[in-house]
From TrEMBL:
Residues 249-377 form the DUF2062 domain. The lineage of its organism: Bacteria, Pseudomonadati, Bacteroidota, Flavobacteriia, Flavobacteriales. Residues 7-165 form the Glycosyltransferase 2-like domain. The keyword S-adenosyl-L-methionine does not apply. Keywords: Membrane, Transmembrane, Transmembrane helix. InterPro entries: DUF2062, Glyco_trans_2-like, Glycosyltransferase_2, Nucleotide-diphossugar_trans. It comes from the Bacteria. Pfam families: DUF2062, Glycos_transf_2. Signal peptide: none annotated. This is Uncharacterized conserved protein, DUF2062 family. The chain crosses the membrane at residues 266-292, 312-330, 353-379.
Length: 389
């Protein structure tokens, strides 16, 4: 603990029945402990009087686990700690597993890492609602960050404090533990699971998770995180990737040399072109990442080719959409290219445009998909020949 400059944070609220056992177990291993009494109304304060050597923060009223953790983080940062391990005071975690986090941290290549305890959710004493809630949370974390974890809800964690100090958080209760790992992952912190043991003793364990209101708060948070992911984080990461590599290198590595098969790449190109041309105004980005995820296509390629509808090309796309629509429907529309560029918003026949737009999107998707497939096959074979001398 001293070598890694790490402390232990114990947020507690009305867990007088297990708090002493938890603290005694921690103190056998370290005295770098900060307890945050989140306005407990049971015997918590009396128990803590027996531990004068432990730093204690007593909040006047209960404001939620998220708020208590943030108070603890600020205290740890002010004392110069680099890491903080959080452990719940309800007795479900084993203080002996502190070494699991420390051992992993010593082996880790980057200091910017957040470890989350991975519990065995299949053991008999784990409540069914806990297992379901964990799977639910795991899915949304993967969607929001691209990182797959086995457990995203365990409160037994190791946090890199340097990555937390400049972030502002908005959730004060249980949902904070979701917000913090997503926000850190967005900022480049590596988030990983480490195996920990779990004890669910219903005779002594007190849980303050309120199924309906807390699950509702978590659902609202995930909705907001998904929106931010689709409209900001995914495009931001994509643009950063291109800037970091350069457009030519990006095309070579991510388009031609990724592990995806030529078929997957070609279908990704086709989907991107289709969504870029089809009249899904305002929803193209969300559809790109949603459909690419559903069909297990390459999101980077799909997003890249969805930008076919760049502003300079929009008049031409609209022009050819109406031309094709006129040919399909037989309905004449009086317009010229000059009229389209000078008075873009005035379409005399919306139905004709929509039909033509979808037709153009399908034809363009087929064309670019086939050309992309043949190009990828050609360069792929060429690369194999080069690699084999």
């Amino acid at each position: 603990m001293q070598q890694l400059n790490c402390c232990v944070l114990v947020p507690t609220y009305n867990n007088a029945g297990t708090l002493k056992r938890v603290l005694d177990g921690i103190l056998e291993r370290t005295d770098a402990v900060i307890v945050i009494n989140d306005g407990a109304t049971d015997g918590t304060s009396d128990i803590l009087k027996n531990y004068p050597a432990i730093e204690q923060i007593h909040l006047p009223e209960n404001k939620g686990k998220g708020n208590a953790l943030q108070v603890g983080f600020k205290a740890a940062i002010s004392q110069g700690y680099d890491y903080a391990i959080t452990i719940d005071s309800d007795g479900q975690h084993f203080p002996e597993d502190l070494s699991v986090f420390l051992d992993e941290l010593q082996k880790e290549e980057t200091p910017n890492v957040l470890y989350i305890g991975s519990r065995n959710m299949q053991q008999e004493d784990v409540p069914g609602k806990s297992s379901f809630g964990n799977k639910f949370s795991n899915f949304w974390f993967w969607f929001e960050t691209g990182t797959k974890l086995q457990d995203t809800q365990c409160g037994y964690r190791l946090y890199p404090l340097h990555a937390l100090k400049d972030l502002k958080f908005y959730t004060p209760k249980f949902e904070f533990e979701i917000e913090v790992i997503v926000r850190l992952a967005w900022d480049g912190t590596l988030v990983k699971n480490v195996p920990v043991r779990i004890l669910y003793d219903e005779t002594e364990r007190v849980s303050h998770f309120r199924t309906v209101p807390d699950f509702a708060r978590i659902s609202v948070l995930n909705t907001w995180l998904v929106i931010v992911t689709i409209f900001y984080i995914k495009p931001r990461n994509f643009i950063r990737k291109i800037k970091k590599k350069g457009f030519k290198k990006f095309l070579l590595e991510d388009l031609l040399r990724s592990d995806d098969s030529p078929k997957i790449k070609a279908l990704s190109i086709a989907l991107g072109v289709f969504l870029g041309i089809a009249p899904f105004w305002g929803f193209q980005t969300i559809l790109v990442f949603a459909l690419a995820t559903v069909f297990r296509l390459n999101k980077a390629i799909t997003f890249a080719f969805s930008n076919i509808s760049l502003p300079p090309l929009i008049p031409f796309i609209v022009y050819f959409s109406i031309k094709i629509g006129v040919w399909i429907t037989g309905e004449e529309v009086s317009f010229s290219m000059e009229h389209m560029t000078e008075n873009f918003g005035m379409l005399q026949n919306l139905k004709t445009y929509l039909i033509g737009s979808f037709a153009l999107a399908i034809l363009s998707a087929l064309f670019f998909g086939i050309i992309g497939y043949l190009t990828i096959l050609f360069f792929g074979k060429k690369k194999i020949i080069v690699d084999n001398g």
